[in-house]
Amino acid sequence: MNNEDAVGTGDARAGIVPMPFHKRPDRIRDPAKLLDAMRPCREAMTFAMSEVKPFGVHYCGMQTVVAAIDAMARLLGEGEHFWEKGTAPRRDA
After folding, report:
1. Fewer beta carbons under 10 A from the terminal one: N or C of the chain?
2. How many domains does the chain have?
3. Is residue 10 part of a domain?
4. Does residue 15 belong to any structural domain of this protein?
C-alpha cells in the first residue's frame, strides 16, 4: 500500500492518524460563568459608545460587539440577562 492509498483511511503506517472523536455537549455547562465574563466587556463598550461620534465607524463596531454579546446571552437562555441586572456604566459621582 502506498501513501496515496492510505490517505483518509487512518492508516498509521502512512503517518496518518485519525483525529480522536470526543462527544461534546451542545450546551455550555456553566452559562453563568460565561455571562459574568462578558459583562465587563459589554459595560466597557457601552461606556465607550457614549464617548464617540454616534453612528461613526468606532461606534458601529462597538455596537456590533454589544449585539453579539446580547445574542450569546439569548443562546445561553438568558436573553434579558444584561437588561434585568442593569448594564449602565458605573460612573463615580
Report:
1. C
2. 1
3. no
4. no
